[in-house]
Design a protein that fits this description.
Helices cover about 40% and strands about 15% of the residues. It contains 17 helices and 15 strands. A hairpin with a 4-residue loop joins strand 13 and strand 14. The protein has one domain: Glycosidases (TIM Barrel), CATH 3.20.20.80. The protein has an eight-stranded parallel β-barrel with strand order 2-3-4-5-6-8-11-12, surrounded by four helices. It has a three-stranded mixed sheet with strand order 7-9-10. By secondary structure, it is of the alpha/beta class. The radius of gyration is 23 Å and the shape is globular. Helix 4 runs parallel beside helix 6 and helix 11 packs across helix 15. The protein binds ligand GBH.
């Protein structure tokens, strides 16, 4: 028998279906047609990539930049994989024009980047460093000249080392408000989308409770709750500062990795359980921010360890937002049960699959439920996916290619489930893939690659991976196939 191609086979089957079912009215179909099953995103949906200052910039001591807690932490023996630091990283401080061309080649309309606070205020407060501001001004101009809209995060964990006590001090929240005012006063003519902070838990709990991240402390509960309060207060003061220093129409939000509770079964009782768990599990951060008060059960639970709140704090913390940015990577399964709180968190069995980073458990429906839970509970006006992506054990082949099919698999599945949220009318405006290129992955140093561009850290050569080709097509077609 003569071998035929898949396409030829599909045509034969389709033709057979059309003829043998004569008399019965069937929809026209043909296997193998590229657009038959494409998941179209709405016109105007925004596609982008994300990075963060300490992970990509390098230039750690250039032009008067002051150290951040991450410089100190990474330079402390035993804190990061192989003692890796962000001293050079992707050298975007010097190569930013090349990076903008990577974005342009992908066809992205938006780019999420962050500002190194200590590059602009080496002491955290006081005298600004003109050369630091000038760098960000040039990056913004370069993006705009290439028709890419900048979305700026003011704080992605690189706290100026000089601030006494770091987030243990309430003065740091005030300093953040002042820094936010300064940045937006100087960039607000060209930048119209700002995020205050990135992932509260990573610079509060991981920095001051477990010690895995900078500054690497292990403090008691009361101190940690106070630190969390200073963090959300910083966010609130920054929202007020941004509004006061930018033209009306400027969009203000944050990027938060709220825990995403996925109902084990899609039925009313389990969905309700997911809603309850979402409010409780994110009580100290997103819930308080969006409700303008600490939930009663949270305060009761913390008792004497609850944070000390001063007059005006909650008003600032509850400042209305134009959008909520969600960094979504993994699911947390939950089910309804008879307990007092009405739900039970499902642990993952040891056989549960994960990506190259052990914490990156696979479950692409989390991107749908992340959006849905937040919108259903808090009716937020707009959502961005401010991060989504995966590490992969990328290998450069002798032919110079990186065939990261697992990353493509991860992304395709997540964008398929995000499509469901968009189709159901949830107000998702755009998606930022983490990350534009491999970079300094915090405590994992350079051992984990999250980029869709491969970076050779010796030569700084950037090479598009298979996932970049794939994403370029998603953007061009505004659809997932
Ligand atoms: C985001 O964090 C960050 O915003 C971004 O900077 C980062 O590069 C990206 O995701 C990829 O990680 O090792 O088991 O203790 C994601 C949230 C919180 C996930 C810390 C990893 C450590 C888990 N991260 N977590 S573990």
């Amino acid at each position: 028998m003569k071998a035929i191609t898949r396409r030829q086979f599909a045509k034969t089957v389709a033709a057979a279906a059309a003829t043998t079912c004569a008399g019965v009215s069937l929809p026209k179909f043909a296997f193998g047609q590229p657009h038959a099953a494409s998941l179209d995103y709405p016109k105007g949906f925004l596609w982008g990539c994300a990075t963060a200052s300490y992970q990509v910039e390098g230039g750690a001591q250039d032009d008067g930049r002051g150290p951040s807690v991450w410089d100190t932490f990474a330079h402390t023996p035993g804190k990061t994989f192989h003692g890796d630091t962000g001293d050079v990283a992707d050298d975007s401080y010097h190569l930013y024009k090349e990076d903008v061309q990577l974005l342009k080649n992908l066809g992205t309309g938006i780019y999420r980047m962050s500002i190194s606070w200590s590059r602009v205020f080496p002491q955290g407060t006081g005298q600004p460093n003109a050369k630091g501001l000038d760098y960000y001004s040039r990056v913004v101009d370069e993006l705009l000249a290439n028709n890419i809209t900048p979305y700026i995060t003011l704080f992605h964990w690189d706290l100026p080392q000089a601030l006494p006590g770091g987030w243990q001090s309430r003065d740091t929240s005030k300093a953040f408000g002042d820094y936010a005012a300064y940045m937006t006063k100087h960039l607000g003519d060209r930048v119209h989308h700002f995020m205050t902070t990135n992932e509260f838990v990573c610079f509060t709990d991981l920095g001051y409770k477990t010690g895995q991240f900078a500054p690497g402390l292990k403090l008691a509960d009361a101190a940690v709750n106070q630190i969390r309060h200073h963090a959300i207060l910083a966010h609130g003061l920054a929202v007020q500062a941004i509004r006061a220093n930018t033209p009306s129409g400027t969009q203000v939000g944050l990027a938060e990795n709220a825990i995403v509770y996925v109902p084990v079964i899609e039925s009313a009782e389990h969905i309700e359980a997911a809603h309850k768990a979402t409010r409780d599990g994110n009580a100290q951060f997103l819930t308080t921010l969006l409700e303008g008060k600490y939930p009663d059960n949270y305060l009761q639970h913390e008792g004497a360890n609850a944070p000390k709140v001063e007059a005006g704090d909650m008003k600032a913390i509850g400042s209305p937002l134009d959008f909520v940015g969600l960094n979504i990577y993994t699911p947390q399964y939950v089910r309804a049960d008879e307990s007092a709180n009405g739900y039970a968190i499902e642990p993952n069995p040891t056989s549960y699959p994960h990506m190259a980073s052990p914490w990156l458990t696979l479950g692409p429906e989390c991107i749908y439920w992340g959006v849905r839970n937040v919108c259903d509970i808090w009716k937020v006006p707009a959502i961005y996916i401010t991060e989504n992506g995966t590490s992969s054990d990328d290998v450069l082949t002798p032919a110079g290619r990186i065939e990261d099919v697992d990353r493509v698999m991860y992304l395709r599945n997540h964008l398929t489930h995000l499509h469901r949220a968009v189709t159901e009318g949830y107000p998702v405006k755009g998606y930022f893939l983490w990350s534009l290129m491999d970079n300094f992955e915090w405590a994992d140093g350079y051992s984990k690659r999250f980029g869709i561009h491969y970076v050779d850290f010796k030569t700084q050569k950037r090479t598009p991976k298979l996932s970049a080709e794939w994403y370029k097509q998603v953007i061009a077609k505004n659809a997932v196939e």
